[in-house]
Structures are given as C-alpha cells and as structure tokens.
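Example 9 (inverse folding). The structure is encoded as follows.
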C-alpha cells in the first residue's frame, strides 16, 4: 500500500508508527508540506523498506500576508532545484473554515502553486474545504496541471467534475465514518485509474491506511487486495515512485 498524504514532521514517535505501517504492508508514502521553510523531516530513522517521496507547498492555514508568501515561495523554488526527492507541489488550496485567512489571498496563492506546478511539470496536492466550486473554477483558469484532490469529502458531482479536469481523488479517514454519507455515495464513482488512499496522519496512525483500504473496498464491493494494488499503481504513476 502507498499512503499518499502524511505529515511526517508532525508524528510523535514517528519511527515506531511508520514501522507499524510497514508491518501492515505499507511500502511507500508521500510526505506532504505545510510550509517549505519547515524541514518536514521525521524525528528519527525511517524504517527499512519504506520509500518516501516529498511534496512541498504552503497550506492555506499557513498563508499570512503577501510578503510572507513571497518569502515562502523563494524557499520553495530553491528546494525544488536542490532536492530530487521532491515530486509535487502542495498541499495548497482553498479553505473557508473560520479563522483560516483571507479568501482573495488564498485564491492568489493557489494560482501561484498551480503555475509553479505547470512550469516544473509536477503534480499538485489540493486541499479544498467548503470552496469546491471556487477550486474547480481556479483549475479551469489554470488548466494543464495534474494532481490530486486530497482528503476528498465532496459530492459525486464534484468528484466527477474533478475527474473531468484530470485529477486523482484521494480518500482518507472520512471513509471510516459511517455518517459521512455524501462521501460514501461518491466513493464507488471514482474511476479505478484515479483512486488514491491516504491517512493524512496525524492524528490517524499511518498503519490505519489498512482500514481506509478496507472501507473503500467495502463501499466499492471489491476486495482490499484489489484496492491496495490499484491505489499503489496509481500513486506510483502520479508521484513517480
Ligand atoms: Zn494534510
């Protein structure tokens, strides 16, 4: 299994948590950035047998003001030049939860990520909370970028609109919630070649990717082995494992 969304630097007791993930069959993960100025490193050694790819970007919750965004992007460009393990841009996107910055600036910063991704030929990792329509409209304005909508929580219609724009859809811990009816209805509609899985750890432990895979399999009426195989193949394709 490949977990496409983990915040490595936020894991307490990371080496043990990742060993537990390897023990249940995780062979790869994508380490996701919140701010390129953070080293984004595991505190301790990586377990053997685990391949890690890195994605760097500025999460909407880390967007403060225009000058700070410029400073973050200068570091981001430098790290893209220097670190060959970086395989994507993000996470970036729109988030309308109260207290998470200003919508106009979020929009501008998202465009900047999309342009950078297109210029560098890298996929984006998108975060969208309560701004689904605006996220899709921005993708239309900045077409020609590959990527994934991470932690998808939207409707089947939003899902199909995202797939039409070439995005992968990553299903996370919300699939474990019996009451997340909208997502549970959408999961069977994800095309096989567009489906990814993630834990977004922490707080969920990385080994629980096994439960996410099992839940997705149940919702799609297939086996966990099938979901593990196809999501791993998709992750390898998108993130160049
Ligand atoms: Zn995240």
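The amino acid assigned to each position is listed next.
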């Amino acid at each position: 299994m490949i977990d496409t969304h983990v915040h490595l630097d936020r894991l307490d007791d990371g080496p043990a948590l990742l060993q537990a993930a390897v023990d249940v069959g995780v062979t790869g993960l994508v380490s996701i950035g919140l701010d390129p100025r953070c080293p984004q490193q595991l505190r301790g050694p990586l377990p053997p047998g685990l391949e890690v790819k890195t994605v760097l970007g500025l999460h909407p919750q880390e967007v403060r003001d225009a000058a700070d965004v410029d400073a973050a992007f200068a570091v981001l460009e430098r790290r893209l030049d220097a670190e060959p393990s970086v395989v994507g841009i993000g996470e970036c996107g729109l988030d309308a939860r109260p207290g998470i910055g200003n919508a106009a600036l979020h929009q501008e910063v998202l465009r900047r990520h999309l342009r950078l991704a297109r210029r560098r030929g890298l996929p984006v990792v998108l975060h969208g909370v309560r701004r689904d329509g605006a996220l899709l409209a921005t993708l239309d304005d900045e077409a020609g970028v590959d990527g994934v909508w991470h932690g998808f929580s939207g409707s089947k219609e939003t899902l199909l609109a995202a797939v039409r724009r070439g995005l992968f859809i990553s299903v996370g811990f919300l699939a474990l919630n019996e009451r997340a009816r909208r997502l549970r209805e959408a999961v069977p509609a994800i095309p096989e070649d567009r489906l990814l899985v993630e834990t977004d750890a922490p707080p969920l432990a990385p080994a629980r990717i096994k439960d996410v895979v099992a839940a997705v399999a149940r919702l799609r009426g297939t086996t966990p082995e099938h979901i593990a195989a196809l999501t791993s193949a998709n992750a390898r394709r998108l993130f160049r494992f």
